[in-house]
Amino acid sequence: MKYPIILNLFLLISCFVFSQEQVIKITKISTGKEIIIKENKRIKIKTQDGRKLTGRFSIEGNSIRIDNELLELDAIAELKRNPLLTSILSSTFLIYAGSLAIGFGALIGVLVDSTAYWLILPGAGMVFAGAKSPNFNRKFKNDGSWSFEIINLSD
User: Fold this and answer.
1) Distance (Å, rounded) from C-alpha 79 to C-alpha 5?
2) Rounded distance, CA 15 to CA 32, Å?
């Protein structure tokens, strides 16, 4: 009777120990608002020396690894979420809408009125913006208004 109780207690304790995951907690210093980004999410980082890194991050100690580069939290100048679905949908929509504007501008310009060629300019801008893969998510800057910290989050 004693062994099943000890086994259940051991399993319960090991479940609590291994269920903790590390996250980046971003805190707005003036208001105390906290934002949590879980490990293995896609982010964009700009470092203090100007390098730009994009990809999934993992936490190792008090630093993060992204694109096989280990970064301390103090080396991050800007951090931004970069969800894959949002990136794909926004860039696809902009390229598709820009292509339609270019096509209709050329077609109407040839068949109806030559002033419709002006539709090609915003269409080209939309295609260019879609090719640059826009990210409309908020940017968290490490300039004193936001603080970054790694914490353990238990489920």
Assistant:
1) 47
2) 31
**Can you tell me the mean pLDDT for 6-13?**
67
Render the burial of 68-95: b for 16+ CB within 10 Å, e for the rest.
eeebeeebbbbbbbbeeebbeebbeebb
Contact status, residue 57 vs residue 43, Cβ threshold 8 Å: yes
Question: For residues 51, 62, 14 and 35, what is the CA-based torsion angle, rounded to 10 degrees?
Answer: -70
Q: Can you say how many angstroms the Cα of residue 17 is from the centroid of all Cα atoms in its chain?
A: 28
Q: Please, are residues 43 and 139 in contact by the beta-carbon 8 Å criterion?
A: no
Q: What is the pLDDT of residues 22-33, one digit of tens each?
A: 888 888 888 989
